[in-house]
Amino acid sequence: MTSSARTTAAETTVPAASNTPGSARGRLLAASAPVLLLAAAVGVWWLVALLVQSSVLPDPATAVTRLVHNLGSSRFLGSLAGTLARLAVAYLAVVVIGGAVGFALGLSRFWTDAISPLVYTLYSIPKVVLFPLFLVFLGLGGASQIGFAIFSGILPMILMMAHAAAGVPRLPLKLAASLRMGRVAVLRTIAVPSVLPAFTSALRLTFGLTFLSLLIVEMFSGVSGLGYELLRTIPLARMGDIVGMTILVVAVALAPVSVLRVIEQRVNRRFGESKEIS
Amino acid sequence: MTHVVARDVVRTFGGVDALGPISLDIREGEFVSVVGPSGCGKSTLMEIIGGLQDPDAGSVAIGGTDLAGPRDETSIVFQDSATLPWRTVLDNVAFALEAKGVPRAARLEIARERLATVGLTDFAAHYPTQLSGGMRQRVAIARALTTDPDLILADEPFGALDEQTRLLMSFELLRVVERLSCSVLFITHSIQEAVLLSNRVVVMSARPGRILDDIPIDLPLPRGLDVLTTPVATEAVGRIWALIRREAQLAMGLT
Amino acid sequence: MVLMTAARATAAPRRYRIPRYLRPRPRTVLGMTSSAWTVALGLLCVVTLETVSRAGLISDLYLVPPSTMATRAASLVTDGGFLRQDLLPSVALIAVTFAVAGLLGIATAYLLWRSDWCRRAALPWLAVYYAIPVFAIYPCLVVLFGVGPVPILVVSVAFGTVVVVTNTLTGFDSVPQPVVKLARARRLGAGQYLRRILLPAAAPDILAGLRLGLVYSIIGVLATEFILSTHGLGHYIADAYHTFRVTDMYAGILLICVVALVLNVGSATVAGRLDWRRR
């Protein structure tokens, strides 16, 4: 795909991006469609809440009001900060350790073939049932939660990076060999740029998995944190609070992922899906 | 003087004979084409001479020295251009010099010069994905020329192009290498292309590839499209075609 | 010919210095293929666990030998109470979740494929969907419907559907242009087009989506049971942990791993059989 910012040569073979409505009005409509859908969903929710007039279904305004109110409480802010800190540590470890291990593994085709079935097996079992092991060995605190979040995120990171590194196209490698390039130069100029698109996709996917796992284990064993706050409100049955917090969780998840998606699209445009050289 | 000497080169893959024994000489400044049915080991031969594969038996010497891996004075033009999509056209052309540690300013200057040689000056800042297949192949040729090679190995460089572009590109290549006076080993499956470009055409058999015939093309340079209608050319094309057809039939079990 | 064989025998081939990154992948390392290494490394893990726990290096409050886990797991599957209270509810919930998520997913994908506006509106949300921890809505649902199968089903379906939608949509988009033109020339109706062209053409991608949908259904059911519920495999493990029944906990985990692996391999086999692209 080409960006409209770059001028396209007259004899290029790249097809114009399909499905793009020609008129400016159409493009505006297309861009606003997701926002309209969201607005419609909120509208329906509000309408139903108004019609039902029940304490178990708060309207959006109530939920947001409760959320703002809760954000004023220092205990809740502490929970939020705790979750964000654990998430940051876990995600950093997933990206750095998982990215490096996966990349290193992928450089050897043989060991990729030998080890990735084991990683995949571990990845394909419902990992949440393994959380008690983390509790047993790391204790009830943040360590077990961070450990489990890393465990959940790092397996797909390793798999995706190993796959990408093992799939570096052969032709550029032949070119490099014919130029008598050393290993480090090949890593820098060919292997790393080749795996960048896969790495940015992995960044986005593993963020979701890491956050999800952290939240689940906070619900299970937390003494603070967003997951704990969510579960704590159940016996109180204060739906306004619960829905408000759920909105907060969604916002915490979507903000970084939106940024990661933009980065991913940029990288894909620049570094291609490496089909050009395969 | 003989430039490339390959003696009894053999290559096997997993117990299957893929190539040879094959012997091939290339004189200095000579343009030699290799044609043969697909799968006959043409590319393998080229990679062995390029030092990218070990022969299982036999030897290769270039310029009087035994080959021990890729050499600096050999440039290879690969089948699918091997452009790096994340680099601009100019940076792609400069890539070979970068690999050899030439400082940035110097390598960009040479790259610009070579880019002009293949007529792509206006596309220096473009990315390969924005170019057509023919233009990408010109980028690869420009890159191969940056290191002042004495030997160019080209593996079906125009294989993916349409007939017209392919002929135009062939002339362009011929024009460039004539000026440089380097030897060329040119792998192709197009008989006409081989006759048009070469001083000699080597015809290979089906797997395991061996040399069936070695046909000199005595036509003056510079050549134009009209040479294909000369008696020398038509006779050569007929001779090669007959050999290849028999080999292809053998390979397909049609005899 | 004689000369050639002689040359082959005498000329010791020179070894070039081909860089490691270009050398072909070795078939064996230390005489073992990669699959043999996979098995060996897997066995090594199990044996290490066994010896470490047998030797008492780790207290049996933390870890029990894999052989003990296996024995207990075997006795669990013949235990009527466990089967009725835990295994059956989970399996039933997974089956229902999978069926609903599969049908809903394919239907949604069809809707998005038919309506350009819906597609534009939904696609950005689908792309970021799995970044949202869907399980966050579980507490709401528990308050609304009480602890029981309904909240579990809703969360698991919400978790499992979207992966079916995205994969199916990929499949629908993969119908080759000539086929589309052919269908147009033959004036196929929408229903016929769906049955004769769209579904068969997209079948490999739909199957891939359904396989993932199954995995997500399993995760959805077990995770919600694990967080808060009164029955099911997930609850069994959580309960065993809370009441310090270490062996039971490990047996339950082992059982789930085995079931998940069997389902995974089974669905891969079925999908492989039905996938025309791999024929």
Shape of chain B: globular
* Major β-sheet strand ordering of chain B: 6-7-8-3-9-10
Largest sheet of chain B: 6 strands, mixed
**Helical content band of chain B:** 25-40%
Oligomer: heterotrimer
**Largest sheet entry of chain A:** none
Protein name (chain C): ABC transporter permease
Main location (chain C): membrane
Domain ABC transmembrane type-1 (chain C): 87-267
Subcellular location (chain C): Cell membrane
Notes on the protein architecture:
Chain C: Residues 87-267 form the ABC transmembrane type-1 domain. Chain C: Pfam families: BPD_transp_1. Chain C: Keywords: Cell membrane, Membrane, Transmembrane, Transmembrane helix, Transport. Chain C: This is ABC transporter permease. Chain C: It is found in: Cell membrane. The complex is a heterotrimer of chains A (278), B (255) and C (279). With 278 residues, chain A is an all-alpha fold. Chain A has helices spanning 24-52, 60-71, 74-107, 109-124, 131-138, 142-166, 170-178, 183-221, 226-236, 239-271. Chain A is flat and about 75 Å long. Chain B has helices at residues 42-49, 89-93, 95-99, 104-117, 133-145, 163-180, 191-197, 231-252; strands spanning 2-13, 16-27, 31-35, 57-62, 65-66, 74-77, 151-155, 183-187, 200-204, 211-216. In chain B, 36% of the residues lie in helices and 24% in strands. Chain B contains 8 helices and 10 strands. In chain B, 49% of the residues are buried. By secondary structure, chain B is an alpha/beta fold. Chain C has 279 residues and is mainly alpha-helical. Chain C contains 11 helices and no strands. In chain C, helix 9 (190-227) packs parallel to helix 10 (233-242). Chain C is flat. Classes of the chains: A mainly alpha (278), B alpha/beta (255), C mainly alpha (279). Chains in contact: A-B, A-C, B-C. At the A-C interface, helix 1, helix 4, helix 5, helix 7 and helix 8 of A face helix 2, helix 5, helix 6, helix 9 and helix 10 of C.
Characterize this entry briefly.
The complex is a heterotrimer of chains A (278), B (255) and C (279). Chain A is mainly alpha-helical.
Write the layout of secondary structure elements.
The complex is a heterotrimer of chains A (278), B (255) and C (279).
Chain A: H1 24-52, H2 60-71, H3 74-107, H4 109-124, H5 131-138, H6 142-166, H7 170-178, H8 183-221, H9 226-236, H10 239-271
Helix pairs in contact in A: 2-10, 3-6, 3-8, 3-9, 4-6, 5-6, 6-8, 8-9, 8-10, 9-10
Chain B: E1 2-13, E2 16-27, E3 31-35, H1 42-49, E4 57-62, E5 65-66, E6 74-77, H2 89-93, H3 95-99, H4 104-117, H5 133-145, E7 151-155, H6 163-180, E8 183-187, H7 191-197, E9 200-204, E10 211-216, H8 231-252
Parallel strand pairs in B: 3-8, 3-9, 6-7, 7-8
Antiparallel strand pairs in B: 1-2, 1-4, 4-5, 9-10
Helix pairs in contact in B: 4-5, 7-8
Chain C: H1 2-10, H2 34-54, H3 66-76, H4 80-114, H5 116-128, H6 138-145, H7 149-173, H8 177-185, H9 190-227, H10 233-242, H11 246-274
Helix pairs in contact in C: 3-11, 4-5, 4-7, 4-9, 4-10, 6-7, 7-9, 9-10, 9-11, 10-11
Keywords (chain C): Cell membrane, Membrane, Transmembrane, Transmembrane helix, Transport
Transmembrane segments (chain C): 91-113, 125-146, 152-172, 249-271
InterPro entries (chain C): MetI-like, MetI-like_sf
